[in-house]
Known about the structure:
The chain has 14 helices and ten strands. It is of the alpha/beta class. Helix 2 crosses helix 10 (250-272), helix 2 (57-64) packs across helix 11 and helix 11 (274-283) packs across helix 12 (290-304). The chain is globular, with a radius of gyration of 21 Å.
Amino acid sequence: xxxxxxxxxxxxxxxxxxxxxxxxxxxxxxxxxxxxxxxxxxxxxxxxxxxxxxxxxxxxxxxxxxxxxxxxxxxxxxxxxxxxxxxxxxxxxxxxxxxxxxxxxxxxxxxxxxxxxxxxxxxxxxxxxxxxxxxxxxxxxxxxxxxxxxxxxxxxxxxxxxxxxxxxxxxxxxxxxxxxxxxxxxxxxxxxxxxxxxxxxxxxxxxxxxxxxxxxxxxxxxxxxxxxxxxxxxxxxxxxxxxxxxxxxxxxxxxxxxxxxxxxxxxxxxxxxxxxxxxxxxxxxxxxxxxxxxxxxxxxxxxxxxxxxxxxxxxxxxxxxxxxxxxxxxxxxxxxxxxxxxxxxxxxxxxxxxxxxxxxxxxxxxxxxxxxxxxxxxxxxxx
Length: 383
């Protein structure tokens, strides 16, 4: 397969040590960075994919702990929503950087959006299909003849990939049901298997009361199909930049490296301080409860850490798998997510490599090889 991620030339990073010296911060990811005496501060906007929650805790922590400020950046985090397409906001110039799942962004890129993946934050897919044990759905091959919930909006690509792999025609071999962004349809018996993220909707069923027992549901009550385990997981949350500006504006590339460095430092802080990051997100106004947010923080960390190549580094094999699946996965109309391999510049590891130089100078661990997840107890309603 033609590699679409040939490195972009990153001129302007030769003086990276000067960036670190001029905008340095604390060398410990567990402590707040002391803002440097910046001659100028660069305003930066980041578009989220969804509302405030621990899925984005690393970015909120980077603001709260002063990691962005230590890089002379004034970062505004913009909430997402059902009607907001982050990668299009980026392409339209409304924001400086955006978060998006890779197949969604590549579909937009194929349609003309000149955007580039500069940091692959989530290294693994967190998408699941959750069903009650008595539905008999142990693998995606068991989807045949069942009511399978999906959110749409590009979140269904892995479901179609699993159906394709299992040889199930999505138009005739299964009933695909539009699902709300919750688990109400599953709990009410309206669908056989509900789409869920490890860090969000799966927790919602474990926070619900089982009417047969009067206690919370347990994992033993459900079957969980992991698309990552099924071999059809696609790359998800990544930081995307404006491709035109990367190619023409050295100052933007320099800002991108500092932004990625401080963002990874935020994620390292959350890896080592899950409860503190839970509190940061709750304080930012999340409508989800404290135990739910701690679960989410813990599960998101599992998608990032350990990162043997380094958090944010784009693994060519994982990228190629995502692209291959996107080209071979057919929807209800028989169309594929991508019609061809992405063109040159779809991703670069140059920015994250430059970010590592900043993090090395700060003594930040961006591989997390010693990461050990927490055991989180969920409360009713996620409170």
